[in-house]
Each structure stands twice: as C-alpha cells, then as structure tokens.
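Annex B. Sample input.
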Amino acid sequence: MGILILSDTHGLVREVKETVERHAAEKVFHCGDFCVDRKRDPFADMILVRGNCDVDRDVPEEQLTEWKDLKILQTHGHLFGVKSSLMRLHYRAEETGANVVLFGHSHVPVCGVERGILFLNPGSLQLPRSFDVPTYAYLEQIETRKREVRVQVTYFDHHGNPVERLGGKFSLRR
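Annex B, continued. Sample output.
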C-alpha cells in the first residue's frame, strides 16, 4: 500500500472523493489549492498544505511527514518559485533532510530524482497545463537497502487510468 498525492483541485469535491475512494492508500497528501473547507469530506482526512488560492490560515504552508523510510517535504510551491526553477525547493529539501518533495502550483506533472531526492508534482485534477489530461499520483516504497530506498510512482488520469508515459521506479537516498 502507498500514498496518494493530489494538487490543484480548485474546488472539486465529488471528483476528489472518487479519486480517494478508488485507491487503498495509507495516507493522502494534497499539495494545495484545494479551495474548499478543509473540514469537509474527504479533505478532513488528508495531509494538507495551503496554496496561493487557499484562504484558511490554519493550514500550514509546508509539512514534513515520515512514512516508512521516506522523509516527505510537502508544499504548494508558490513560495519557492517552482514555475521557473526547483532550485529553492531543492535547498529546502536538503535543509529538512527530505528524500521526497511533493509540490503543486504549476499544474504540470513532474517526477524526477536529483541528488537522491524525488521531486513529484502530481499535476492538477482541475486545470492541467502542458499535459493533455488531469492527473494525480500514487507512490509506493518497493525496497529498502542500506543506503537507498526504491520507490515506484504511478500517475493516473482523472478516470483512474494509468498514464504510462509518466512516473517510474526511482532510487532515493536513505
């Protein structure tokens, strides 16, 4: 079992609920711009961060979560300039010791490893950019070795169909 990652749903509720119910996930992360009451089902059970379109100041701008052998830094991305570069976000990941960074804001699905850190943007369920379908992601830890953790990232479209050209298997620092 893994974790489900969503972002930039901008007011969608029924679609988000269907997505969460579609997958057996240990945790559900939302990377901001959910734009609904955080206490509403299914958002109340998610690990949330505040995006630039969210108004609830009780939602943090970033979260650090440990899950299995992963240390996950989660943010929306607007405060780190992710539309132009991931450099500031990379520095923050190194400061926190994270080996996974979850972010949104650009609405563009991104998944890649740099210096042992996985950077994952699930895309947007509401308004995809630079991609032809709305997306979200699912991450599983598949193996742990002495100095590395292997994970698999699978992207899905808004109907729950795998998007084969995104994601893959990655080795991360431990």
